[in-house]
Amino acid sequence: xxxxxxxxxxxxxxxxxxxxxxxxxxxxxxxxxxxxxxxxxxxxxxxxxxxxxxxxxxxxxxxxxxxxxxxxxxxxxxxxxxxxxxxxxxxxxxxxxxxxxxxxxxxxxxxxxxxxxxxxxxxxxxxxxxxxxxxxxxxxxxxxxxxxxxxxxxxxxxxxxxxxxxxxxxxxxxxxxxxxxxxxxxxxxxxxxxxxxxxxxxxxxxxxxxxxxxxxxxxxxxxxxxxxxxxxxxxxxxxxxxxxxxxxxxxxxxxxxxxxxxxxxxxxxxxxxxxxxxxxxxxxxxxxxxxxxxxxxxxxxxxxxxxxxxxxxxxxxxxxxxxxxxxxxxxxxxxxxxxxxxxxxxx
Length: 347
Prior knowledge:
Oligomer: single chain
Number of strands: 14
CATH architecture of the largest domain: Orthogonal Bundle
Radius of gyration: 24 Å
C-alpha cells in the first residue's frame, strides 16, 4: 500500500490585492497566492518523473449557498521555478516571470465547483502552483492540498517585509537654491516655518494644478503625518531644510505615480499600486498589501495621488520608528502599553 505525503495550505483571493484571475489576465495573474513544491524523489529508480496530486477546494460553500451566492470558477497552473530562483525561500514571483515562462501543468479546466483536482507527473525539480479564480476581482477563501507519492517539501511564497529607502539629502541652508528659498518665504509667512494648515494649502494648490493627477485633496491628518515624519526638532512645523527634503520626496512620489499609472487615468489601480510600492522601496506580504488597499483605495479599487502619498509617508514613518526601537536589529521589538498607544493612537 502506497503512503502519500501531503501538505495543506489555507488561502484567500481578495479583490484589489490577491484576486488576480487566471493566466488570461497577465497584468494581475502574478498577484495570486503562490505555493512552491520541491519534488526531490522520482517514483522509481532510473526515472525522473514524480507523481503528485493537486486539490483546490473553496471554503464555506454551505454558507454561500444559504446566502444565495454561487461558487467561483476556479483552477490552478503549475510553473517550473527558473534556475536563478531555485533554492530561494519566500520569493513571490513577479509579473515578468509569468510573461516569459511557459506553463508546466494545469488543472484540466476552470470550473464553477467546490473542488478542482488533478493528478500530475513532472520531472524532479522546483515548481510553483498558482491557484486562481477564472476572472480577477472575485473573492473567495480556499484550501490547497498537495499529495505526493514520495516526500516533498512545500511552502507558501510571500515577500519578506523590507523597506529600502533612498538616502535623504539634508542640505545646509546655504546650499538650497535661491529660487526655492524665495518660494519658501512666500509660503511660510513671517515665522519662516510651515504649519499643518499651510502645508495642506500648498499641497492642494500644487496637485490641483496637475491635470494628470486625480486627488480629493490632502487632509489635515495626512499633512500631520508628513510633518511628523520630517520634523527633526519637534516644533510641529517644517523649517526650510525640512521642507526642502519633503518637497524632494513628494516630487519622487509624483514621478513613481506617473510611471505606474499605466493607463494615464490620473489614479492607480490597486494592482499597479503594488508595483509602485516596490519601486518606492517597500516590499510587503500579501496580508499587509490587503490592509493597504482596504485603507487607501477608493470604492472602485483605485488609489488617488493624495492617498498614494499618504500611504508612502505612513509606511516610511512606521519603518523608521521600528528601526529606532529595534536596538539590537533582530527584527523584533517589545512594547509596553504606553509605547503601543503612542504608536497607534498618536502616530
